[in-house]
Amino acid sequence: MPIALWNTQYDDAPHSPASTASSFDEDEDEVNLRVRPYWASYRGVLKLRGFRLDTVEDVKAFYSCSSNGPIPDYFLVKHSGDVNDALCPDAGLPDNLFRGTQVCDGAKVVIKAVHMNSREFAVIRFLSTPPLRHDPMNHCIPVLDLIEVDEDNLAFIVMEQWSSQLIDDDGPCCLALFLAALRQCIEHGVFMHKHRVAHLDISLRNLLTDYRGHYAYIDYELSRRFDGVDSLCIPSFRATEVPPECELLNGDCPDPFKADVWALAILILRACKLAGYCLAELVQLTRPMLNKNPCDRPSMDEVLRAFDKMVPTIGNLDRLPTFQ
């Protein structure tokens, strides 16, 4: 079944260019709040960088081509009137996301607005800049451009449009492809932690696919980079999958990296249920990852080594497919 990333109605009322709507704790600093841009104000800026926000005409043209079919994540087309050049937001996306097109080749994109000084923008810029962006262990969704609007303290992250419907209409993939997808999830965790980045919201809802064998994490709103930081503890931690130690510490997260390991175990188990592959080997793999004591959980690197050691024990799966 489709895994919807969001189901928030789009608000058509004009907003100031960088007004904010919090998705965090009330004490969170302002730059990390979710921004709600008035998208029409930035059509020109984006056009200069080669991107066009979806209009009524764009959406009509896309759906008129029978070979395209429906976009799995394009929930509701919402617009007023039939003015073809009017912007046409996807009502299934939150206000900080907008679908569009790369002008040079017609490729569909998703554009995310963030505060220019936010942790999310800093993390995405760090992971999407050479040489890190070319590392084969980096499974971030491809970022096509980072556009800064200095006068509004606003930035736009332009990404390839992938799907949150992890299982397409043809049904579940074969076991080898399923395990290859899980390996990408684990490998990206190793990559992030190697560079002292904790995702902090690993979950199925934050996983996308291009239907060509590639899977990518998205949504780095909660992510943090701990380079040269003495304390790892995060107060008032909130995420899709919250480890048990946070409940014991009144919401504080003492080790964000081990919180990622816990969340990844939950992702693996949920993915098994979704795909119908409830393998005893995968359940065994997740047990130490779900240890109540974060100190006793394996590192991401240890999880990857255990996974690679496990695969040959499954019949006819001594090697997994790879994708370029």
From TrEMBL:
SUPFAM superfamilies in alphabetical order: Protein kinase-like (PK-like)
Keyword Methyltransferase applies: no
CDD domains linked to this entry: PKc
Keywords on record: Kinase, Transferase
SMART domains: S_TKc
Domain Protein kinase residues, every copy: 83-324
Cross-referenced InterPro entries: Kinase-like_dom_sf, Prot_kinase_dom
GO molecular function: ATP binding; protein kinase activity
Xref: PANTHER family: PROTEIN KINASE DOMAIN-CONTAINING PROTEIN (PTHR24362:SF309), SERINE/THREONINE-PROTEIN KINASE NEK (PTHR24362)
Protein name: Kinase-like domain-containing protein
